[in-house]
Amino acid sequence: MRHATTNGDARVWHVSDDLAARYAEGVLPEPEAWSLEKHVEGCGGCAATVSEAVRGTAAGPVLAEMRDAVLASLPALAPAAPAARRPRRRVPHRFARLLWAAGPAVRGAWLPAVLVVAAGALALAYGTGYPGVRALLLAVAPVVPVAGVALSYGPHADPLHEVAAATPGGGLRLALTRTVAVLAVSLPLLTLTGLLLPASGAPAAAAWLLPGLALALGSLALASFVGCRTAALLTGGGWLLAVLGPVPAASSGGAAGARLAEQLSRCLDGVGAQSAWASAAVLSAVLVTARRPVYDRPLGR
Q1: Which of 120, 165, 160, 125 has the alpha carbon at shortest distance from 140?
Q2: Phi and psi of 299, rounded to 5°?
Q3: Are 53 and 17 in contact, with CB atoms under 8 Å apart?
Q4: Does 109 or 231 have the greater pLDDT score?
Q5: What's the distance, Cα to Cα, between the start and end of the chain in Å?
Q6: C-beta separation of 194 from 141 below 8 A
Q7: pLDDT confidence band for 4 (50 / 70 / 90)
Q8: pLDDT per residue over 220-239, tens digit each?
Q9: pLDDT tens, 261-288?
Q10: Is the pLDDT confidence value at 103 over 60?
Q11: Is there a smaller number of Cβ atoms within 10 Å at the N or the C end of the chain?
């Protein structure tokens, strides 16, 4: 099993030969395998021990041939620059990993879509004088993080999703990292846009923050049962149906805006409504935690 060494007041464990051998043979239980994989990311000595154990298995010669083939192809693909002229660009390892983890959440079509929503609301309010633009933005804004979560996690967002989900840094941790990246972009941007729009009887520009957080977490929790895309359709579609359904389709622009602002006030204004959204966010977070093992499998159905 593991063996520990004492470093000051902290006890640091390292991989024993027996643990490395069982990992190489594929008989180590998953929790211990994940712990080992996470440990060797920052421990060169243990990584060498595990590599040596893997080389001693039947798969060792095959892996060695693959490694030699990759190394042999590197000079042809990218000739190395002289050491004296090679630029020294160092990106912190932790930052690089975080950027990779959050990547699908802040690139592709989703981020331009958020910018289009913000710019379109401002253009509609000050370019055409359309009444009730803030109410329309508040109706759409909670769906934006839900769509971002659905588009940033799963096989459709990451070709290596199955591999990443099986690593110690994957699964729920990866899903939460990308959810935080989505919220960090959409919440301040759309709230600032709402502040720049005329109120016209609509709730405050920040009234959608708790609903947006609750819907994003609810979508993530529901994804453990039905998949990311279906969960996003259910949560986002349910919200839009609740706020837009009571607005008559034949209403004029001013009447529709006033009716939408009234409906949003019921859903967003007041201590009761905001407390209900906060409770929904907490319950969703608890459900996500309880369903944690499910996120180690693909959720992109």
Answers
A1: 120
A2: -115, 20
A3: yes
A4: 231
A5: 39
A6: yes
A7: very low
A8: 999 888 888 899 999 999 99
A9: 899 999 999 999 999 999 999 999 999 9
A10: no
A11: N
Q: What are the C-alpha distances in Å from 99 to residues 106, 206, 223, 258, 289?
A: 10, 28, 24, 43, 24
Assigned token pair, 287: 């459900």
Which run of H or of E encompasses 223? Answer: helix 209-226
SS3 label, residue 270: coil
Phi, psi for 4 (deg, rounded to 5): -115, 150
Residues 6 or more apart whose CB falls under 8 angstroms from that of 236 comprise 142, 143, 146, 147, 215, 219
Q: Which two tokens stand for residue 5?
A: 């060494």
Q: Which pTM value belongs to this model?
A: 0.65
- Please give the backbone phi and psi of residue 28, each rounded to the nearest 5 degrees, phi first: -75, 135
Residue bearing tokens 């975080």: 98
State how far the Cα of 35 lies from the Cα of 167, in Å rounded to an integer: 10
What are the residues facing 10 on neighbouring strands? 7
Whole-number average pLDDT of the chain: 78
Residue listed under structure tokens 């840094």: 169
Number of residues that make up the chain: 301
Tell me whether residue 169 is exposed, middle or buried, using C-beta atoms within 10 angstroms of its C-beta: 0 to 12, 13 to 18, 19 or more. middle
Structure tokens at 90: 């160092």
For residue 249, name the pLDDT band (cuts at 50, 70, 90).
low
Average pLDDT over residues 100-124: 75
Cα separation, 296 vs 301, whole angstroms: 14
Give me the amino acid identity at 204.
Answer: A
Look up residue 47 and give its two tokens: 């990584």
